[in-house]
Write a structure and sequence with these properties.
Layout (H helix, E strand, L loop, with lengths): L1 E3 L2 H12 L6 H20 L7 E6 L3 H15 L3 E6 L7 H9 L3 E4 L12 E5 L13 H8 L11 E5 L42 E5 L9 H7 L1 E5 L13 E3 L2 H7 L14 E5 L6 H12 L5 E5 L3 H7 L4 E3 L10 E4 L7 H12 L4 E3 L2 H6 L5 H5 L5 E3 L3 H8 L7 H12 L2 E4 L5 E3 L5 E3 L12 H14 L4 H20 L6 H15 L3
Parallel strand pairs: 2-3, 2-5, 3-4, 5-6, 6-7, 7-8, 10-11, 10-13, 11-12, 13-14, 14-15, 15-16
Antiparallel strand pairs: 1-9, 16-17, 17-18
Helix pairs in contact: 2-3, 3-4, 7-16, 8-9, 8-15, 15-16, 15-17, 16-17
Length: 511
């Protein structure tokens, strides 16, 4: 899995590495990788030679990285202009290199002498040390840059240097005024300048040494665009524990249960699904749809939507209640269950079972009053809860806020459960303090019933023997890919997501 590190850990590693190499080595390594990526983008838009490149340059090392990268592009024939937001504090070496390569610098506070066009804009305003959104003169310069067009057609490509300026690097949060991204380049937020509420919305972020939280979680991750990691030799010097990890395809493929030659339906695992009701039979069908796409050999359904479930999935064994379902290796409970006495009885029966349990939707609503706390904390088998933000707020007493990873970890510790906090970047938090983020999510999944599908798939993975964190991550990963696949054919419904699970799993496991 890919590790994601806090700013303090990055700073410590940089200091340790810089003590072993000549001065300026890290900056030149970063600038070389940044210039290489920018050149690739320019080639895709007609070539480096003659391209118009604008550098938005702050006063720190981030500005130095940007200036040195600009110098490399200028030496390849690009027309490079640097807007210096603090001319008296610009990186001296980087500025000299830019001018020596034929680039020019202007006062970014007024942008005097700047043209009306740019094919590529580099955001070198602030790096990992920035806090609190952008203020003047950066906000004003960014707004002016957002008005530029490319002489080659369309708008400029915006490349963030290390992180998009203005985001909260350690949490992935953005200032309140920047909560709704804009559709154009440059600003993501209110569009006002000088209020400290602006952030950069990049097409590409070129980051150095390691990934930072803002690139992978929270609203800041959306502003990062496509993220490319440049190796500057930092990894061996990172110490301690990463803030979270991100699974990749190889991880999930390795975790996914495989069939042994002597496998049969019971050895593959049996998952129980206690979902749906007379009012919400579709929740039962969707959660069972997620379960049957998983690796288990048998699904037992317990609930009042048995007729609808069997009509769609005749291989399922259906009963009216959990107590009559028979032996299972994991339970999924809650989706469309309702909140009456029957629902309470079913939840109590599920929690009493000595097997892993997934609690979703109405099961989470029943936990809010705290009366189930003792039974939850007394469970010896794992519990996984799958709240979206509103459900999380009811359980925790407040929304996740900017620090989604920290909020999920606090709830996981308090409930002694694995928390799968749903979102574009789903967070999985373990009660022992480990955290993970899934990067395959898509806004296309923000439609009714997709969470029911996810819960069923997660329950199947638990029943097949995966530990709670890997099961949650693998389910979120595959569910995200299924959402993306379904979205290729138009507006997404949960039915399409459930149908897309099988081909996604087949591709993941090579059939």
């Amino acid at each position: 899995m890919i590790q994601v590190w806090r700013v303090s850990d990055v700073r410590s590693a940089e200091q340790a590495l810089m003590a072993t190499v000549p001065p300026g080595t890290l900056m030149h390594r970063a600038a070389a990788g940044l210039a290489r990526r920018c050149a690739t983008l320019l080639v895709e838009r007609g070539g480096v030679y003659g391209a118009e490149v604008l550098l938005l340059v702050g006063s720190g090392d981030n500005g130095g990285d940007t200036l040195y990268a600009g110098a490399r592009l200028a030496r390849r024939g690009a027309r490079v202009t640097a807007w210096l937001l603090r001319p008296d504090r610009a990186h001296c070496g980087g500025l000299a290199a830019l001018r020596a390569a034929g680039g020019r610098a202007a006062d970014g506070r007024t942008a005097d002498g700047a043209g009306r066009h740019a094919d590529l804009i580099l955001d070198g305003i602030v790096g990992i040390g920035g806090t609190g959104g952008l203020r003047e003169p950066a906000a004003g310069a960014l707004a002016r840059a957002g008005e530029l067009t490319s002489a080659r057609g369309g708008r400029p490509v915006l490349v963030a240097v290390d992180v998009p300026s203005g985001v909260a690097v350690d949490t992935g949060g953005v200032p309140d005024g920047a909560a709704v991204p804009s559709t154009g380049a440059g600003l993501a937020g209110s569009g006002a300048t000088g209020a400290g509420t602006d952030t950069v919305r990049a097409d590409v972020t070129v980051t150095f040494g390691c990934l930072k939280p803002a690139l992978m979680v929270g609203p800041a991750a959306v502003r990062a665009g496509h993220v490319e990691l440049v190796d500057i030799g930092l990894r061996p010097w990172l110490r301690g524990t990463p803030v979270f990890e991100v699974p990749g395809r190889d991880d999930v493929s390795t975790w996914w249960p495989t069939l042994a030659p002597a496998a049969e339906k019971y050895t593959r695992g049996v998952v129980g699904v206690a979902t749906g009701s007379a009012t919400y039979p579709g929740a039962a069908v969707l959660s069972v749809g997620g379960a049957v796409a998983g690796p288990t050999g048998l699904v037992r359904y317990a609930g009042s939507a048995a007729a609808q479930v069997l009509d769609r999935y005749p291989s399922v064994i259906a009963t009216g209640r959990v107590a009559d379902a028979g032996r299972v290796q994991a339970w999924v409970c809650g989706s469309g269950l309702g909140g009456g006495e029957h629902a309470v009885t079913e939840l109590r029966s599920v929690l009493a079972a000595p097997v892993p349990v997934v609690l979703d939707a109405d099961a989470l609503t029943m936990l809010v009053d705290g009366s189930w706390a003792e039974q939850l904390r007394g469970r010896q088998a794992p519990t996984v809860i799958t709240p979206h933000d509103r459900e999380f707020a009811r359980l925790a007493g407040q929304p996740p806020g900017d620090d989604r990873v920290g909020a999920a970890l606090r709830l996981a510790a308090w409930m002694r459960a694995t928390v799968l906090l749903k979102g574009d970047r789903t967070v999985v938090a373990a009660p022992d303090g480990r955290a993970y983020v899934n990067a395959t999510g898509t806004p296309a999944l923000a439609t009714g019933g997709t969470g029911d599908v996810l819960a069923g798939l997660l329950g199947s993975l638990l029943a097949a023997g995966l530990d709670p964190q890997r099961a949650a991550l693998a389910a979120a990963y595959v569910h995200g890919l299924a959402g993306r696949a379904a979205a290729r054919n138009g507006p997404v419904t949960a039915v399409e997501v459930a149908a897309a699970l099988r081909p996604v799993v087949a591709d993941l496991t090579d059939g």
